[in-house]
Amino acid sequence: MIAVASDHAGYDLKKEIMKHLDEKGIQYKDYGTYEKQSCDYPDFAKLACDAVNEKKADKALLFCGTGMGISMAANKIKGIRAAACSDVFSAKYSRLHNDANALCLGGRVVGAGLAAEIVDAFLSAEFEGGRHALRVEKIMSLEK
Ligand code: RB5
Hints:
This protein has 144 residues and is of the alpha/beta class. Helices cover 47% and strands 15% of the residues. The protein has helices at residues 11-24, 41-53, 68-74, 88-96, 112-124, 131-141, and strands spanning 2-6, 28-30, 59-64, 82-84, 102-106. It has a five-stranded parallel β-sheet with strand order 2-1-3-5-4, with helices on both faces. Helix 1 packs across helix 5, helix 2 crosses helix 3 (68-74) and helix 4 runs parallel beside helix 5. The termini are far apart. Residues 7, 9, 41, 64-66, 68-69 line the site of D-ribose.
């Protein structure tokens, strides 16, 4: 199960990616926003990331205008390692090396086609562990 969430600026791209997930038969739950009225991305980052922390979802896909604000908000939530990506390579390695559990995309930055490839790379790559495990542990030990 994938948790998806956006603000108004990420709403259209979120909808495109939801269609893409439908086509791939990947289950997801949309934690809002459900309309294009201006809203605050930290509220929706929190809802989707809480679902990850509560193990209702394996990962979160988060969308705002740039992917930046919603990633900053997500990375303040204990247990979350959010990667803001505009390319396939970064998305893949955010999983392989960083064990990212949230991917953040900018609706004003990437088109739907590229975003779908970024999402596919993120969802299909597995954490390599090994030497990266200690580094991820060190990231998590920085949480207050
Ligand atoms: C909303 O206008 C915009 O600031 C927001 O979606 C995001 O891009 C912030 O990082």
